[in-house]
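To illustrate the input format used throughout this study, we show a single complete record. The first block contains the structure-token representation of the backbone; no residue identities are included at this stage. The design step must infer an amino acid for every position from geometry alone.
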């Protein structure tokens, strides 16, 4: 029979593999418990798919014998790898789905949930991405019932009778602050908005360009959303009347401040579900006019995309980009739009490069190339030849970089 526990951390033992939710599902209460009693983290392998710049818990800092398994690079993950205490899984979301469904089951899965409703069901609140997949196979299931977590609608709910224990404790859900948007971002967003038609289904991630896109699409109508995460961009589009009021808004995570959390809880069409639904390329492919809008670190003249590694250092992971790219390209009338500023490091580094080098990672191969947008225009790559692609990409590079890129391409082409 499930029982009310004094502490979430009482379920942890040395040698256990423990799934802990990340991003908007991260339990600050669990972290507080472990900070107060770090011996509970000794010998525990925490599996947390933490996103850089969003998650705050540093499980490796809790105890010198704690371990971490994840899929995104972060300062904690980097330090842990150097010390032999962390494992970075080189997987996109499709790979993580397989890992959670067919890899070793967790000894413990922890979920942060809202209080039970009239039917005794708890929602996962602001994050339903990976928890359902880890939860159903875990040997032991522990719930953090958080009265401050907003109740949301979604495909997965939990009854406390189905748990092996639970703790009720008030803990402020994680918040996310929007990044500052500049004129270059707004210009790119306006260009992207010109490629989007009324009635399209959109996917976009976090960052400055998606935030600017929420403003640029204000005059559009009947747009739909099927995306891995939503931010304030959702609210901008809803309040502008750009979204189809009768269409379900599908997502896995909501990131924002307290006001946005309230907005999310009160928005009837918003539907939370896990990554096997949000990132299923087959489901995306049967959605007509699916437009995936994503950022990149660099694009080479073949159309290959690096969205993970900058200057040799991993910054993130593949995430959901490969699934959205494949689904969008298979969608009738769909499109994959990769957005990036033409330069980095105050104009000293071109982000359109001759070819991905030894300090890059190929997140998307050239066979998935479609549309690339910088502040200098649009490069349409689908159905283009190798040379036509290179010419189109050089034309949207920073003007002062084009001659050098042209010379590099001439050398590459002569050796093909």
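Output of the design step:
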């Amino acid at each position: 029979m499930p029982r009310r526990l004094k502490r979430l951390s009482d379920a942890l033992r040395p040698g256990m593999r423990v799934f802990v939710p990340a991003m908007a599902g991260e339990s600050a209460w669990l972290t507080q418990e472990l900070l107060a009693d770090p011996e509970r983290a000794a010998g525990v392998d925490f599996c947390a798919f933490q996103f850089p710049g969003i998650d705050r818990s540093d499980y490796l800092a809790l105890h010198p014998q704690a371990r971490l398994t994840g899929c995104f690079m972060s300062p904690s993950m980097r330090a842990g790898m150097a010390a032999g205490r962390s494992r970075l899984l080189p997987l996109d979301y499709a790979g993580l789905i397989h890992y959670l469904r067919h890899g070793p089951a967790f000894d413990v899965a922890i979920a942060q949930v809202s209080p039970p409703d009239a039917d005794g069901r708890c929602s996962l609140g602001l994050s339903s991405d990976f928890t359902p997949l880890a939860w159903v196979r875990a040997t032991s299931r522990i719930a953090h019932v958080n009265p401050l977590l907003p109740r949301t609608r979604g495909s997965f709910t939990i009854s406390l009778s189905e748990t092996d224990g639970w703790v009720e404790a008030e803990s402020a859900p994680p918040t996310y602050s929007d990044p500052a948007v500049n004129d270059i971002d707004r210009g790119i967003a306006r260009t992207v908005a010109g490629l989007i038609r009324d009635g399209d289904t959109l996917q976009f991630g976090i960052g400055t360009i998606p935030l600017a896109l929420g403003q640029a699409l204000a005059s559009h109508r009947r747009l739909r959303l099927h995306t891995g995460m939503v931010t304030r961009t959702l609210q901008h589009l809803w309040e502008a009347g750009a979204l189809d009021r009768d269409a379900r808004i599908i997502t896995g995570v909501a990131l924002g401040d307290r006001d946005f959390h309230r907005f999310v809880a009160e928005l009837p069409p918003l539907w939370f579900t896990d990554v096997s639904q949000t990132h299923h390329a087959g489901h995306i492919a049967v959605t007509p006019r699916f437009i995936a809008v994503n950022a990149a670190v660099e694009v080479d003249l073949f159309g290959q995309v690096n969205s993970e590694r900058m200057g040799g250092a991993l910054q993130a992971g593949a995430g959901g980009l490969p699934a959205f790219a494949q689904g969008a390209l298979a969608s009738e009338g769909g499109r994959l739009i990769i957005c990036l500023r033409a330069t980095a490091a105050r104009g000293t580094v071109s982000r359109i490069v001759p070819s991905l080098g030894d300090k890059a990672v190929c997140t998307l191969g050239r066979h998935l190339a479609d549309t690339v947008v910088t502040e200098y225009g649009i490069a349409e790559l689908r159905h283009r030849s190798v040379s036509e692609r290179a010419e189109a990409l050089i034309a949207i590079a920073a003007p002062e970089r084009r001659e050098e890129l042209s010379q590099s391409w001439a050398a590459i082409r002569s050796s093909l």
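Structural context for interpreting the output: The domain at 183-415 is CATH 3.40.1080.20 (Glutaconate Coenzyme A-transferase). The chain has a mean pLDDT of 96.
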